Amino acid sequence: MTSLSAHADQISSVDVLAPIFKASGDPLRLEILRVLRRDTFGVLELSQLFDMRQSGMSHHLKVMHKAGLVEPQREGNAIFYRRPLHLDNDKPTDLTIRQIFEAVDRAPLPASLQEKIESIRNQRANQSQAFFSRYSEQFREQQELIAAFDLYAAPVADMIRKRTRKSQWQTALEIGPGEGGFLPVLSELSEHVVGLDNSRDMLAKATRTCIDERLNNVDLIEGVTDTLLARGDAFDLVVANMVLHHVPSPADIFLDAAALMNNGACLVVSDLCRHDQNWAKDNCGDLWLGFEPEELTAWAAAAGLKAGEQLFIGLRNGFQVQVREFWKTQTPLR
Length: 334
Fold this sequence. Notes:
Layout: H1 2-24, H2 27-35, E1 41-42, H3 43-50, H4 54-67, E2 71-75, E3 78-82, H5 92-105, H6 111-134, H7 139-143, H8 149-164, E4 171-175, H9 183-189, E5 192-197, H10 200-213, E6 218-222, H11 225-231, E7 235-241, H12 250-260, E8 261-272, H13 279-284, H14 293-302, E9 306-314, E10 320-327
Parallel strand pairs: 4-5, 4-7, 5-6, 7-8
Antiparallel strand pairs: 1-3, 2-3, 8-10, 9-10
């Protein structure tokens, strides 16, 4: 009787794996999983990537979602898809899904597909830049519809100052300094500061801040992280304040930041937790409606960064801000 029961349990365990293998047993679906390694894409974007009708792509995503290979993420009125955030290594189904991801990730994306992904990222970037160009004069007013600058800048500054006692910040980078409100803090704590922004209008405002505050150790550079990577720059401290929800591929910020960090360096990020207030897209130029803390942790881990202290700040208007730190350890994480 015990033998029959054990056999039944084994069959049941195998049965739950069958839908996963069936859903992943299609070359196109494996390709979809590959492009979702770090990015989140909508149905229309995936249809564009793979040159197929939206109805066909929706069918594939439905099958994959039912099997647990992807999960939907609502961004306002649109549905995007990503790999599942929560996978338990003790569950056979989740372990199988993780092994499938690891297998497909070993193969590099074809150059033609990578070019299409870059095209979509450029479309997103152009959308964000157009907003900041149009509303640069009202930037602070627009941003404070969500969170006043001091509400997240002060906790970030406190976190950095607390670490300054143990670490020496020779060089610091702020990605997306906006009007430059946080540059005085970095100028005080680091010998040399770089502010990097792809908006010429915002850099002009940051320049005025540097002049008014007499920040003589700050260099402002127009460009993206690739600009600094090409120069071979390296930093002890990297800060991204309320930037991730404006960038085309937030996961890439972690990869690029890690590549720009010296061993023992720290990345400090403040950004919105996931929310459903779609008006932020039109009023504040947001590309993403915040992030799950697990998303940031996973992106950081994939970039070889170790999560440190975290702080969550609830705002009266329903938003929540997360302040996170990530470290580049002497020994790369595995």
